[in-house]
Amino acid sequence: MTPMQTVTTDDGGRIEFERHGSGPPLILLHGGMAPPEYWTPVIPHFEEYASIVPQRPGFGTCLDDPADTTAADVLDREVRYVRNLIDAVEGDPVVFGHSYGALTAIEAATGADVAAVVAYEPAVLPEDYRETAALADRMAALIEDGRRHEAVKRYVERVLHPDGIDDLDAWLADWPVWPDCVALAEEVVRMNRAVERYRLPDRLAVDAPVLVSSGTNGPDFLRQSARSVHDVLPHSRFVEFDGVGHGGPGNAPEVIAAEVETFLRNHS
What is the value of pTM for the model shown? Predict the structure, then answer.
């Protein structure tokens, strides 16, 4: 197991991350309920980079009391965290985010010097979908009723398996991070509420080149949003991977890494 490294920001905050290899920095931001280990199958495909994998604040580290963090603070908190990490590494990094990490990567890049951004299915809701989503409220009601497992299960159903799955309970029982996800139920609610409140602007002021991508087997609303994010970026390329779902980078690392490598070579 790679030991966690820590840097201290100018305001006294702590940033904890794993560093793999050497070379130009590649910051990997995991998504909603995926742990940092999500990137384990991805890292070997970027051997020429120093892969930097932070632990998201509130998901195991960094916060003194995550319960004090409101939904309105969640995205701002993580954007500041990523910008501080960008400042702490040597050189302008490539920032590669998945799902909620992809949204964070793009927002962080609007106020930081980065070489490029890679965003796989950023967690942005289309306006028509937002009106009926209300996932945060439904999860919060289940938690208040003492049904924490059911609350997090709703998230898995809506995001990871939107087309259904034969035996979800069996799938969850085999999912290594499931107990940790249940323990973080309140944080998942705050994250979802932040996503539901986020409004995609008419233009995202990211000067660096951005690769936005999705998979044909992912949730339709995220595929739609990925294209919408691409449309409001000034220097963006959009790619859709056939037969790949929302788990994209972790589930099909060779295919996606090859496209990312080509994109980065063309914009080096």
Answer: 0.88
